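Student: I would love a firmer grasp of how sequence relates to backbone shape in proteins. Thank you; the sequence and its tokens follow:
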Amino acid sequence: MNYDERLAELLLLGDESGVLDYLKDEYGPLDRHSLYNKLLTPAMYEVGKRWESNQISVADEHLATAICDFVLSYYDNHLETNPLAIERKKALLFGIEGEQHYLGLKMVASVFRDQGWSVRNLGADLPLEHALHQIKTYKPAVIGLSAALSYRLPKLKEAVAVLRTLEWQPQVVVGGRMAHEHDLKRLLHGQAYIVKDLDELAEWLKGIQVSSDATSL
């Protein structure tokens, strides 16, 4: 995945205004797709790789994450969102237990909302038993799971297996860096839809069919 080296460096420097100025000067007006899929995601993947190879410290990685979060919030407040439908399909998102990465969940939530969905983002590192309470109350049509590192696979498999037993049969979607780098369709035995990037998610959402139980007024 290609990345903008200057953007990655600015994120690591913790330069909030520098990142915003660079994006505006270099790329001009941006839509969410271009910002998330073409710029921020590749830059943060590069930051993660540098951390894994001990080129940067965990403090550096946390700083870059915080700046990326700031940029996401800034653009969320300044970009238009599609008008809300009267009857909205529901999605619920969370990171599996032990998964600390949350920026991807914020990007995914924005993609859903842009297409008129009602979204509950429960955030990162959520034990399955706690997520299930919200899931059974909310009854979403789609449940999105995020996992970045391969050693989360056992927890991911457990979560997918449990979610597949829910009586209203929601669609289970898995994304994150692990989905981008590994053959999760094979590892999860085809029990979940694997989203490798936001392009795939947006295309999939255009054709999804949901039951009438999984909508809200």
Notes: The mean pLDDT is 86.
